[in-house]
Amino acid sequence: MKNRNKTPYYAVIFTSELSEDISGYYEMAQQMEEQAKTQDGFLGIDSARSALGITISYWESMEAITAWKNNTQHVKAKQKGIKQWYKSYQLSICRVEQEYGEKI
Amino acid sequence: MKNRNKTPYYAVIFTSELSEDISGYYEMAQQMEEQAKTQDGFLGIDSARSALGITISYWESMEAITAWKNNTQHVKAKQKGIKQWYKSYQLSICRVEQEYGEKI
After folding, report:
1. ipTM associated with this complex
2. Which residue from A37, A53, B9, B95 has the least number of CB within 10 angstroms?
3. Cβ contact A90–B100 (<8 Å)
4. What pLDDT, in 10s, does the model give residues B40-92?
């Protein structure tokens, strides 16, 4: 919800359905968001959750995405997510070609 | 939340914050989703809303996105959205390069 960067830049779309056991999930999601913000090349993050949760993080380059993917704390969080929190998930890596918007 | 297509394909990320007057919004959102599904090249849609709303629609090609952008009913819905429902919005057009996921 802000001008993030000149296109092209990159977006990681993460969609998930939660399992019944979500103890610790929201704390970890918050921690991961704080951690992502400290990564080189991080541009922003948007999230929303209804039945489906969607988190989109925005990055300057594919290299920045790879570094975040391999971040040790992030790797541990993902393992815990797959083991406990997620019923299903999907991850898409995208190149953002055009962007526009406005505050009304 | 399904295998949509072989990459590359395209995604339109629409994020919005709603204004105080959202009368008619959810009906229109539902109608637009039904309408989008009838468009050539439509692959799928994901949405979630918290403080921020995120809707991602997936398309076979940029041509399919342009056709949906110019669809008469969609144009009218967008005008009404800008006039009444949205406090702010942002739209990003992306090329999906990689995708993976699983049912756990």
Report:
1. 0.89
2. A37
3. yes
4. 999 999 999 999 999 999 999 999 999 999 999 999 999 999 999 999 999 99
